[in-house]
Amino acid sequence: MIRSMIGLAGASLLLASCNGMSGEAALDIPEVANGDISQATMVDVTRKLASDEFEGRMPGTKGEELTVALLSEKFAAAGLQPGNNGSWVQDVPLVEITGKNFAPLTITNGQTDLVYDFGSEWVGVTYREDAQTQLANSELVFVGYGINAPERGWNDYDGVDVKGKTVVILVNDPDWETPGLTGPFNGRAMTYYGRWTYKFEEAARQGAAGALIVHDTEPASYGWNVVESSWSGAQAYPQYGDNAPPRTLMNGWIQKEVARELLAAAGQDLDALSAASKQEGFKPVPLGFTASTSFQNDIRTFMSKNVIGVLPGAKRPDEYVLYTAHWDHLGRCTPAPDGDDICNGAVDNATGTAALVALAEAHAKAGAPDRSLVFLAVTAEESGLLGAHYYAENPVFPLAQTVGGVNMDAFDMAGPAKDVTVVGPGKSQLDQFLEAALVADGRVATPNPSPEAGYYYRSDHFAFAKLGVPMLYLDGGQDLIEGGKEAGKALADDYRANRYHGPKDEFDENWDWSGVMADLQLMYRLGRMMAMSTSWPNWNDGDEFRATRDESCAAADTGC
What domains does the chain contain, in order, with CATH numbers? Predict the structure, then answer.
């Protein structure tokens, strides 16, 4: 009991210190017994999903067919019912574009030519369904962080017309190096303006023909190897049809040293421009050079699948609690030195997908809770949260009747920890459920140690949060029982440097599952608490998603 009370105090302090807890009344948070969660299920399903037979689980491939069939079978065996009007799946219309025969990226001013090789020095894709992509003599303009945020008084495109031009953009947002969490863009904590998805969207809205993000390992939070693996090979996008948003001809990344060289050729200095870009009132800089490249595209349209199972509620079946995880990974990708070209995605995210099955089993064994539990395995997370966005925009279960949820993405295989990492703490009243669950488990909460990485905008919960549904996103703890914080950091750094989004994220028979099972117990308890509660948690006052939830609830006849 003493340990639990310390856990509550630590959790409350840490969660409140990040963004400020709401002062609203406490919620109805029932006590929940431990769940009977099968480690054998976790091991078996993870092993299967991460096997070479599944070919890296790329949407639209044999790997998808095998994954959807396996999850449908496992959900049924766990005791769930098909979640989409008698079907286990929701169709998600996608297009797959595979670039090939890439010409070098050529930068010239008519006197100086700089030529860069695809893969090692730059990568690029098109979002357009064109058989041939041709970027020809497109003027280069450096636009700092590529942000247009009127509500923050910030416009990196101010005073320049970039229509038909190629913009060069820094990764992250202007105050990512600030030690604290205050600043024009939340200090060290990345905002959505820092994500590559936003930068490419804004470049397209500005009419740019091309957009090139300057890769830098620390503010990106991953190395060039991750960029090369993720942005080569087949890429999946939504099928837009006649309602397509603006799109550039080409979006891509360049190595930092490539940017340094081309800026020097233009009489500019990367470090000086980066410093200037952090200041309000920064003006874009035309570089006096043009960019050219070309490549061909193989195009295929197809229906991918979200897999949905539901455990109907016993008392209020039309109120829903979500568990989400993405089943997809990168398929075949840039080969490792030994020739292995299958990105198996064992940790990311065979573990989270297996957790859906294991949690479904445990909740079914415990009997139906008062509210319905929805187990949602979404597609195309690696392509930009496409399956989650599609469900959120076309929900099987109305969002105003969705209480909240827990997202699971890549469980740590580092062994048990004294804490759990909270990504985006202080945002919603779900923190009160988390505090109670941590007390029961005798653990504490630790804020995300890398807020500059923008993890809250990088997994499937974000698609639901944008449309108002309160979501929790937890990661493994940092303070390991064996080795403490130093060991936790070393293991996390090793995974990110050597396995994340690469062919060596493979299943290991020697993994220690004890930490995963402890985290699963916490997630079981959170979902069960929400499903047995009578409360409707909301985003905290002043949170960016509060107004959307309030509007959704006000328009609904039932639910929140």
Answer: 2-21+38-79+312-554 (3.40.630.10), 97-299 (3.50.30.30)
